[in-house]
Specification:
This protein is of the alpha/beta class. Helices cover 48% and strands 24% of the residues. The chain has one domain: Rossmann fold (3-Layer(aba) Sandwich), CATH 3.40.50.2300.
C-alpha cells in the first residue's frame, strides 16, 4: 500500500530533496507541498495525507501552530516534525507534546528518514 505524504517546508530545495528521498523508498507518494503552516492546513484538509512531514520554522504560520490545527482536525494524524539540530530543542519537545509522532533532523540522512517513516507507519498497525 502506497502511503500519501504531505511535505511542509518553506525551502523549495529542502522540499525537493525530501520528496525525492521519500518517493525513492517506493512505499510513499508525495501528494503535496506546502510552503507555510496555513497552506499545510488547507492541503491536509483537501489531500487527506497518511503522513505529514512538517518543518517547525516557517514564515506566516510556523509548524507548531499548524500542528495544533492539524491535530484538532484529526487527533490520529501522523505528523513527523522536520528540525534543524541547533536552536529548536524546546519547540521539538512541544511538538511531541502536541502529538507529533517523531522528529527527522536536518541535514537528512536517508536511512534515518526511512526508519522513522517505517516506525510511524508500523505504529498504526499495532
Amino acid at each position: 500500500m502506497i502511503r500519501k505524504v504531505l511535505v511542509v517546508d518553506d525551502s523549495i530545495a529542502i522540499a525537493r530533496q525530501l520528496t525525492k528521498m521519500v518517493e525513492g523508498f517506493g512505499e510513499y507518494e508525495v501528494v503535496g507541498h506546502a510552503k507555510n503552516g496555513a497552506e499545510a492546513i488547507k492541503l491536509f484538509k483537501t489531500l487527506g495525507p497518511d503522513i505529514v512531514l512538517l518543518d517547525i520554522v516557517m514564515p506566516m504560520m510556523d509548524g507548531l501552530q499548524s500542528l495544533r490545527a492539524i491535530m484538532r482536525l484529526n487527533p490520529e494524524a501522523k505528523v513527523i516534525v522536520i528540525s534543524s539540530v541547533g536552536g529548536v530543542g524546546q519547540k521539538v519537545e512541544e511538538a511531541i507534546r502536541l502529538g507529533a509522532r517523531s522528529v527527522i533532523p536536518k541535514p537528512f540522512e536517508e536511512e534515518k528518514v526511512k526508519s522513522i517513516l517505517k516506525r510511524v507507519v508500523e505504529q498504526e498497525q499495532d
